[in-house]
Amino acid sequence: MYWPTTAYLDKVSSWSVNPERAQDLGHVFILVDAKLMAGDGELGLRVDDFASRLLSTPAADPANPVRLPGQLEMQRYHEQIRDGVQIDDDDVQALRALVSAPV
Q1: What is the 3-state secondary structure (H, E, C) of the chain?
Q2: C-beta neighbour count of 87 within 10 angstroms
Q3: Where are the domains of the chain?
């Protein structure tokens, strides 16, 4: 049987550091029926309690508070909806040069 190999941990190439290099990344998804673990609604209550406890944890660095996964991204999304997307002046100039370049 052939098992394709993929990178893991620090062997995965970063798309933001090396965008031209393939990540060689694989995914595994495990689905769990939460109702089998804890009845209707119980899991939601437990997740809410866990999130509340996590968010009330004192931050090691007050400038970087404890957050839930995705919380910072949602904060930035709402800021960009309100204030617009900030683009570095050098990037704007590069984009304008591309637009005005002959085809």
Answers
A1: CCCCCCECHHHCCCCCCCCCCCCCECCCCCCCCHHHHCCCCHHHHHHHHHHHHHHCCCCCCCCCCCCCCCHHHHHHHHHHHHHCCCCCHHHHHHHHHHHHCCC
A2: 9
A3: 12-100
pTM of full prediction above 0.85: no
Q: pLDDT tens digits, residue range 10-60?
A: 878 888 888 888 888 777 889 988 888 877 788 889 889 999 999 999 999
Structure tokens at 18: 């090396």
